[in-house]
Amino acid sequence: MRMSLAQRVLLTWLFTLLFLIMLVLKLDEKAPWNWFLIFIPVWIFDTILLVMLIVKMAGRCKSGFDPRNGSQNIKKKAWYLVAMLLKLAFCLALCAKLQRFTAMKLAYVFIPLWALLLGGMAELGYNIFYVRRD
Questions:
Q1: Cβ distance 37 to 21 under 8 Å?
Q2: Best exposed site among 6, 56, 81, 92 by fewest CB in 10 Å?
């Protein structure tokens, strides 16, 4: 399952456009939809990304793969998986809060997003300042 860069960009723009159109309709009170329905394009896109990531990670299990060859690669893929799950947790908590399913404080809703941002900053700092000693 290989997608070209143009296909990935087009898919990203399509799902972003659908989400923004649905969000604007909800905020303008033109559509009385549930907040979970508004986020469906985001979740479809995230599901596609998760499936592609899991398929790439499962490719390491095939015979003939040298595990010493990509130890850094699997760490990066694991971080991507954790980041996607944190984003999913944030979106679900946000929808539950907006739909008034829970009386959770807004600060608790943003904990997965803050963890994602801190992890992203740590990953960025590691990639910038890490010096390889070969």
A1: no
A2: 6
CA distances from 45 to 78, 81, 87 (A): 19, 14, 12
Q: Is 93 exposed, middle or buried (0-12, 13-18, 19+ CB in 10 A)?
A: buried
Q: Which residues are CB-contacts of 99 (< 8 A; sequence separation ≥ 6)?
A: 34, 35, 36
Q: What are 41-68's pLDDT values in tens digits?
A: 999 999 998 998 888 888 777 666 666 6
Written as six digits, the tokens of 111 are 């904990």
112 close to 86: Cβ distance less than 8 angstroms: yes
Residue 72 has which token pair? 């850094």
**What distance in Å separates the CA atoms of residue 81 and residue 128, rounded to the nearest whole number?**
21
Distance CA 82, CA 85 (A): 5
Contacts of 90 (CB under 8 A, 6+ apart): 109, 110, 112, 113, 116
